[in-house]
Amino acid sequence: MSQTALVTGATSGIGRAIALELGKAGHEVVVHGRDALRGAATVEAITRAGGRARFIAADLTDADDVRRLAAAAGQIDVLVNNGGLSAFAPTAEFPVDRFDALFAGNVRAPFLLVAAFAPGMAERGNGSIISIGSMVGAIGLPGGAAYGGTKAALSAMTRAWAAEFSAKNVRVNLVAPGPVYTDGADSDFIKYLGSTTAMDRGAEPREIAEVVAFLASPAAGYITGATIAVDGGRTAI
Ligand SMILES: NC(=O)c1ccc[n+]([C@@H]2O[C@H](COP(=O)([O-])OP(=O)(O)OC[C@H]3O[C@@H](n4cnc5c(N)ncnc54)[C@H](OP(=O)(O)O)[C@@H]3O)[C@@H](O)[C@H]2O)c1
Fold first, then answer.
1. Total count of domains within the chain
2. Pocket residues for ligand 1 (CB within 6 Å)?
3. Whose CA is nearest to atom 44 of ligand 1?
4. Which residues have a Cβ under 8 Å from the Cβ of 44 and sit 6 or more positions away?
5. Matching InterPro entries, A to Z (predicted)?
6. Nearest-atom index, ligand 1, CA of 180
7. By residue range, what is the domain housing residue 191?
């Protein structure tokens, strides 16, 4: 049975890699982001590899736009809450509008998307929801209070959603990456953070995407409510 996956923030970085993996696994992929050109490039990469995809633009910090995205996406079997904002700055200097945008994009948007899609998945008795957290949701980094707060919230929401929906065969999990080399990330910062991991390196987006594709697959059929650290061992040491 063909399944449709919505991947937020799939115009670049980790989300793009996830969209490509899910396309390869046979899902029809709804590619989300804001940049239509990069959206078209992700769609093209999926179709070139033999998959099916379409692009929908929406701003995750705008609740009405998130609801419009949900309506335009139609029936979704796999929801990947990947899109998000990241910002690091000393707490006393952190602008309040930036704080609000982080929580709107990283916490409220996934909440609204789960509200839109999980009841339908439960009714059909099939679904997988995977959110992208961060090791910063579990460890303290200077300047990371707001960002880490959003990722810890996503982790708590994942457990609550697992309690709410798993009995109807809707599995809800969180993947918590360590440092990943992406367009949106400062490569010197990723290199430094990579040097603090047990593996002494940062990750490539594909190394996160393959774990997400596994969680979306029937091979992960008894995994729900889990936070999977994909962080080179950073939270273990
Ligand atoms: N890179 C890392 O080291 C790392 C580590 C742990 C966790 N993460 C998490 O992994 C996820 C992806 O990160 P990444 O590094 O791959 O980021 P990225 O390369 O900067 O890509 C971010 C994606 O999110 C979209 N996005 C950002 N703000 C948005 C908004 N307001 N409305 C709609 N879409 C928005 C972007 O779309 P447009 O560009 O089209 O607007 C883009 O597709 C994030 O949740 C991040 O917190 C990243």
1. 1
2. 9-15, 33-35, 38, 59-61, 82-86, 105, 132, 134, 177, 179-180, 182-185, 190
3. 84
4. none
5. NAD(P)-bd_dom_sf (IPR036291), Sc_DH/Rdtase_CS (IPR020904), SDR (IPR050259), SDR_fam (IPR002347)
6. 3
7. 4-236
What is the DSSP-derived secondary structure letter of residue 92? G
Question: Residue 131: helix, strand or coil by DSSP?
Answer: strand
63-79 pLDDT, tens digit per residue, is: 999 999 999 999 999 99
Q: Give the H/E segment covering residue 114.
A: helix 109-124
DSSP secondary structure letter of residue 11: T
C-alpha triplet 29, 34, 38: angle, nearest 5°: 65
**CATH code, domain with 177:** 3.40.50.720
Is 147 annotated as catalytic? Answer: yes
Name the residue among 171, 185, 159 with its Cα closest to residue 15: 185
Mean pLDDT (the chain) is 97
Predicted pLDDT at 185: 85
pLDDT band with cut points at 50, 70 and 90 for residue 1 = low
- Rounded to the nearest angstrom, the distance between the alpha carbon of 137 and the centre of ligand 1 is 16
The pTM of this model reads 0.98
